[in-house]
Design goal:
By secondary structure, the chain is mainly beta. It has one domain (2-178). Helix content is 3%, strand content 59%. It has one helix at 104-109, and strands spanning 2-5, 10-18, 22-33, 36-47, 52-61, 64-72, 78-80, 83-84, 93-96, 117-126, 131-143, 146-151, 154-160, 166-169, 174-178. The chain has a 15-stranded mixed beta sheet with strand order 8-7-6-5-4-3-2-1-15-14-13-12-11-10-9. The longest helix has 6 residues, at 104-109.
């Protein structure tokens, strides 16, 4: 997937791939932080039920890389940089604040019918700080390929492909410029 965000002056490449025990979501986001060029790289491992199990994020600005790692046992218990993170208890997903890619995780997991609204608790990674906090979200399925996403006062319609990857995020937040044919992901 290749995305562009005019409002963030950003581009992102992303790859979703099956593994023997789930899937990986990996990518690179290029954008400015405080007027300086920045590169965000991520690798997310999810289990067969699309729950986040491990996440690695690195941010490079001015040649100085910073790293963050998160992990979950799949039952809602988390650690951040190898330390227990009880404040994230009950989170099912990681949400990277600079990427539309992580919306794919709950979309793939939720088997809701059109009109259903499902609450999701996510470990939200904020950028450029690389801090983590809980973000309460809802996903309302509008039809086969459209969802209404809400978090706090923020709301955006998401249009997805058959693999659950974002084609359009809101009116102008993220737009797919190019993508490979989606593969059937169990």
């Amino acid at each position: 997937m290749l995305w562009r965000s005019d409002s963030l002056s950003a581009t992102e490449t992303c790859r979703l791939a099956p593994t023997g025990t789930g899937h990986t979501l990996s990518g690179t986001v290029l954008l400015p932080f405080d007027g300086r060029p920045a590169e965000v790289r991520y690798l997310i491992l999810v289990d067969e039920l699309w729950h986040t199990r491990a996440t690695g994020v690195s941010v490079r600005t001015d040649g100085r890389p910073r790293h963050l790692s998160l992990g979950s046992d799949g039952a809602g218990n988390w650690h951040v940089n190898e330390s227990s993170a009880p404040m994230l208890a009950g989170c099912s997903d990681v949400d990277l604040g600079v990427s539309p890619a992580t919306n794919t995780l709950p979309i793939r997991r939720l088997a809701s019918a059109a009109g259903d609204v499902v609450a999701v608790r996510a470990a939200w990674v904020k950028f450029p700080e690389l801090t983590v906090e809980v973000l309460e979200q809802t996903y309302e399925r509008l039809d086969r390929n459209r969802w209404q996403y809400r978090a706090g006062n923020f709301s955006a319609e998401l249009t997805v492909d058959s693999a659950g990857l974002i084609l359009r995020y809101g009116d102008d937040l993220w737009t797919a410029l190019a993508h490979s044919d989606p593969v059937a992901l169990a």
